[in-house]
Structures are given as structure tokens and as C-alpha cells.
Amino acid sequence: MSPTGTIPLAFESFREHLDEHYDRRERLIKASRDITAASKKIIFLIHRVLNEASGDDRALSLRAAEARRRLAEVRLIMENVAHELDGARFWRYAQNISGGLQEYIEAFSFFHYVECGGLVSYEQVQANLSDGAGQPLFPVPLSDYALGISDFTGELMRLAITSMSKPNGRTRATQISEFVRGCKADLETLTPHIHDLYKKQVVTTQSLRKIEEAAYAIAIRSSEYELSPWMLDHIVSQVSEDKES
Questions:
Q1: pLDDT value at 172 more than 60
Q2: Looking at the domain that runs over 141-245, which CATH code has it been given?
Q3: I need a surface site. Which of 7, 13, 111, 133 has the fewest CB within 10 A?
Q4: Model confidence pLDDT, tens digit, residues 82-104
Q5: What is the spatial distance between Cα 172 and Cα 168, in angstroms, rounded to a whole number?
């Protein structure tokens, strides 16, 4: 074949390669959006379950089972696109799935905290995103894990504020405050090495301050006056609403 004949063939090969690249990229971006939307719904569901914690035990158990089922459905989305991220391709396309992965880690961390207590480890997240043989669907970047955990502290702030008006809620809020403070301190060492973590740490600091200010206001009010349990709960409820707004 003449040299002039090889040029169109070369450009045809380049076109096919670029089409494949853009198609894979779009599929991953769509999957990431689906994962993000589904994970947010799981977080809202967990909050609803916790808000109904004084309700029927059987109903609460069913809602918790629903959250677990939805997590499995989101994981299935990632399992279905794992072949797009096979081998070295993962690092080329990791940014296209990153947003959804962080949101899933946030939802999974929240569910783990409610079910088991404590922080879900990086190893537990990677194990969750592995097949039946223990092989990872794809490697979970440490940066996505850290950013997902940082977002998770915001959900803990909402949980702490809404818990304060409930029996033993102030004790739970104190425990959450200590937990969030520990997460912030642990993530601080990673801040120089992970893009966007500094901005998320600022939000974590604001979340921690909201919890502490609400607890401080309640402690001051209760020490100044001899309040009945009903009146104290009323004040706590008001403070909680102010901090959530």
C-alpha cells in the first residue's frame, strides 16, 4: 500500500480509538450520577429511620433492611461498570467515577456508623467493593475514601442536632462531637496531599462548631435555671431548629 493510502487508515484508527474513549467516559459519568443520586437517597432514608427511632421496632427493622438493600443496588451499578475500569484503564477514567464513589462511601460510612458504631475503615470499603472471590472490582483511591469520610461528618452533625431534643440525645450529641473531632484530626494530616480535602475540612470544622455551640447553649440554659424536663426539652428543640437552619 502506498504511503498516501496508510494515512486515511491511520486516521480511521484514531477516530475509532477516540470514539471508544468518549463513549466509555460518558458511560462512567452517567453511572457516577446514578450512584450519587441513589446514595443521597440512602442517606435521607437513614436519617428518617433514626428520626423514627422511638417507633415500632419491626418497622424500623424493615427500613434498615431497605437501606441495606439499596446499598447493594448501588454497589451493583459499580459492579456493572467495573469492566470499563479494568487494569491500567482505571487511572485514566478514575476521575469520571470519583464523585459517585465518594457519595457511596459517605452513605456506606453512615450506615456502618449507625449499625456498628465507629468509623468504617479503608479496608472495609475496599472489601465491600470486591467480588465473591475477594478480588476488588477496582482499586478505591485513598483520596476518594478520605473525601467521602469528610462528607460523612456533615451527616453526623445533622444527626447530632436532631438527636438533642430526644431522650439521651444530648449524650449521643456529645459522643458524635468527639467522633467528628477525631475524624477531623485524622484527616488533617492528609490535607496537603489530597486536592479539595482542605475545603471539606473547613466544612467539617463548621459542622463541629454547630454541634458544640448547640450543646453549649443547652448547658448554659440548664445551669442558669431550674428547668423542668419538659421546659428543657422545649429549649433544646428550639436550639436544634436554630442550628439546623
A1: yes
A2: 1.20.58
A3: 133
A4: 999 998 899 999 999 999 999 99
A5: 7
Residues sharing a CB contact under 8 Å with residue 25, sequence separation 6 or more, in sequence order: 93, 96
In DSSP terms, 124 is beta-bridged to none
Tell me the DSSP string of 31-85: HHHHHHHHHHHHHHHHHHHHHTTTS-HHHHHHHHHHHHHHHHHHHHHHHHHGGGG
**Which CATH class name applies to 13-121?**
mainly alpha
Does 245 have pLDDT greater than 60?
no
13-121 and 141-245 agree in CATH topology: yes
Cα–Cα distances in Å, from 183 out to 80, 144, 153, 201?
A: 32, 15, 8, 10
Pull the grid cell for residue 125: 470499603
pTM reported for the whole predicted model: 0.85
Grid cell in block for residue 232? 428543657
Give the distance from CA 110 to its chain's centroid: 7
CB 111 within 8 A of CB 71: yes
3-class secondary structure per residue, 16-30: HHHHHHHHHHHHHHH
Task: Break the chain into its structural domains and give their ranges.
Answer: 13-121, 141-245
Alpha carbon 29 to its chain's center: 18
201 vs 219 pLDDT, higher one: 201
Phi, psi for 87 (deg, rounded to 5): 60, -135
